[in-house]
Amino acid sequence: MRLVVLGKQGAGKGTQCVRLSHHYVVPHISTGDMLRGAVKSGSELGAKVKETMESGELLGDDLIMEMVAERLAEPDARARGFILDGCPRTLQQAESLAALLAPGDIDLTADIEVPTSQVLRRLAARRVCADCGANYSVAAPPRVNWTCDVCGGEVVQRDDDKEESIRRRLELYERQTAPLIEFYEKRSQLTKVNGVGAPDTVLRRIIRAVEDRRGRWGRR
């Protein structure tokens, strides 16, 4: 299975991709996780990534696609497929991904739709583990003193989850990423999923959409 998940920042892509990965036993490939790993490494690349992420801008297409190509070449993705989260974000990335996968292609693009007002509320309340990236919120914190339940790392508010950065990212999404919806619609690869509701409810909606399309793939 080769699935791309789209949606505004804060639409719940990461949460749903992890759940889908467990459900289908397919690797979840998150460009955000890869980039944050580069930042944490303290490398020259990581410093460039950090500066760009904190400014609310998008990283260059060539850099993103180089990282994605390396990850898709690994044995688990070659054998099982992938659930791609955070890429493509531009038409150039979408075209590069199609060329990378040729003569194959992605099977489905799921666009998780959430109103902007709700995205702003979600992101303002979101907290993440600085080490493993596990998601929490002000309303659903870790069990002990903002210490990650998964790995024991510090749970913090990301710099790019502060309101000014959030608004810049949403503007960039509308300007640069939203045209992807039209791109995948023209290729008959898009399904839109209502992202409002409890995570389990949204997951069931995505699975229904995937299963409907899988019947046409011969259950790949």
What does this molecule look like?
The protein is of the alpha/beta class. The protein has one domain: Rossmann fold (3-Layer(aba) Sandwich). Helices cover 53% and strands 15% of the residues. The chain has a 5-stranded parallel beta sheet, sandwiched between helices. A 3-stranded antiparallel beta sheet has the order 6-5-7. Strand 5 and strand 6 (135-137) form a beta hairpin. Helix 4 (61-72) runs parallel beside helix 6. The model has no long low-confidence stretch (mean pLDDT 89).
Summarize the structure.
By secondary structure, the chain is an alpha/beta fold. It is built from 10 helices and 8 strands. It has a single domain, classed as Rossmann fold (3-Layer(aba) Sandwich).
